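Try this one yourself first.
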């Protein structure tokens, strides 16, 4: 990775491009599950439509670490955290990320406790687990009968409960405010449900990005994707009806402690004894040894690989991912790794989640073998015979044909990838981020 801000996660394609202009769902859990750099195109990237219909609020959809529901995180001592003092008056700078509601000025980010102390009751799930660099996009709060939604982020290295997190911004929608007489203002006099597109342009100048939709103008003022203010001015009313304010930066007092405790999951891993022919097994042969992904990095070091600390992420946050570079017999490999523990730990306690190998005509260095004996130089007919009974898709690019073998239960971008050119295998890749062994 290794940016510690959640902004790095946008590169993973998990950022939600809210370019539609209808009222959208407010119970979405966004993850940070940043996926590290990939040397393979695992599947055709999903293209978001110009205007995206987002459903009305329902129960929160979990998209974070799959093991989160098995982890209990209790509140920790907050004594090292300093409350964020709220300003008495609004700044004139939009990028101070301030908003005034009913006479109270709010500045983001602030701690969960700070927001709660301003009279808001949290309606979300306090037992939720946020891993490192995860955030909840739209968490409900209520005050004086008014409900609003905020983002709650974990920018620390360790897993936390929401009440230990940062409230990094809020989302406002006109339908929420139908029975609310609050004055809601931003810097330079811009008011929710009052100001027009022209007012916004006069106050803040041309936006970083603007989308002219059928129903509304979406105007976004951005320092980066996770520090931005977005207005939606609807054409029928001519005023701001939706507002997203987000400033996802680190506050002082985060728990960035690192534990060297070996996760119990590592002892549960058992190295496979045979390659077999099962393309749902996540087993492969590499350098003469058998591995099953995700595989503890310790398995590789036990087999003679040495971690190159200079080019590796030596500390990985809870549930987070990073990169490791290893060397054996004068050959270097660079692999994505994941920490499955609910605490930050050292690289040696993490799991390799992806292995790739290319041919480029140097077959003497090719050492990867897939189930059914598929390796570099295998024929396309052999590949098709090996994967015939498994879920797979194929695509073509130039002279190459890509075969993607997915999981047994549902479509997944994880599994095996085999690239064939001129009738022969020229590239192999395997990836799995879930514990299935």
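Now uncover the answer:
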């Amino acid at each position: 990775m290794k940016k510690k801000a959640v902004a790095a996660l946008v590169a993973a394609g998990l950022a939600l491009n809210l370019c539609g202009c209808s009222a959208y769902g407010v119970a979405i859990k966004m993850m940070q599950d940043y996926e590290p750099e990939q040397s393979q195109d695992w599947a055709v990237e999903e293209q978001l439509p110009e205007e995206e219909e987002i459903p009305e609020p329902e129960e929160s959809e979990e998209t974070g670490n799959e093991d989160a529901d098995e982890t209990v995180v209790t509140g920790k001592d907050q004594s090292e955290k300093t409350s964020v003092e709220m300003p008495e008056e609004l700044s004139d700078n939009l990028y101070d990320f301030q908003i005034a509601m009913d006479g109270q000025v709010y500045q983001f980010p602030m701690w969960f406790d700070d927001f709660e102390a301003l009279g808001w009751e949290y309606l979300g799930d306090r037992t939720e687990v946020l891993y490192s660099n995860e955030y909840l996009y739209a968490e409900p709060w209520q005050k004086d009968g008014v409900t609003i939604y905020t983002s709650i982020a974990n920018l620390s290295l360790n897993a936390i409960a929401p009440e230990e997190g940062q409230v990094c911004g809020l989302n406002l929608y006109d339908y929420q405010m139908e029975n609310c007489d609050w004055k809601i203002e931003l810097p330079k006099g811009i008011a929710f449900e009052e100001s027009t597109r022209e007012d916004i342009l006069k106050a803040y100048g041309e936006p970083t990005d603007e989308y002219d939709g059928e129903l509304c103008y979406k105007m976004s003022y951005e320092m980066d994707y996770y520090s931005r203010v977005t207005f939606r001015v609807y054409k029928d009313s001519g005023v701001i009806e939706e507002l997203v304010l987000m400033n996802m930066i680190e506050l002082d007092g985060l728990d960035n402690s690192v534990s060297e405790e070996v996760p119990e999951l590592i002892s549960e891993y058992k190295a496979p004894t045979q390659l077999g022919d099962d393309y749902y097994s996540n087993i492969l042969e590499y350098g003469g040894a058998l591995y099953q992904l995700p595989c503890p990095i310790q398995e590789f070091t036990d087999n003679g690989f040495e971690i190159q600390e200079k080019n590796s992420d030596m500390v990985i946050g809870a549930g987070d991912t990073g990169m490791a570079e290893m060397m054996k017999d004068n050959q270097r490999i660079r692999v994505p790794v994941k920490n499955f523990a609910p605490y930050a730990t050292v690289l040696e306690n993490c799991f390799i989640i992806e292995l790739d190998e290319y041919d480029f005509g140097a077959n003497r260095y090719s050492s990867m073998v897939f189930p059914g004996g598929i390796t570099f130089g295998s024929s396309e007919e052999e590949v098709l015979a090996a994967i015939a009974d498994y879920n797979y898709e194929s695509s073509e690019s130039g002279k190459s044909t890509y075969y993607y073998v997915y999981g047994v239960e549902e479509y997944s971008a994880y599994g095996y990838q085999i690239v064939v050119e001129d009738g022969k295998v020229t590239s192999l890749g395997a990836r799995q981020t879930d514990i299935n062994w």
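Discussion: Residues 20 and 122 are 28 Å apart (CA to CA). The radius of gyration is 25 Å.
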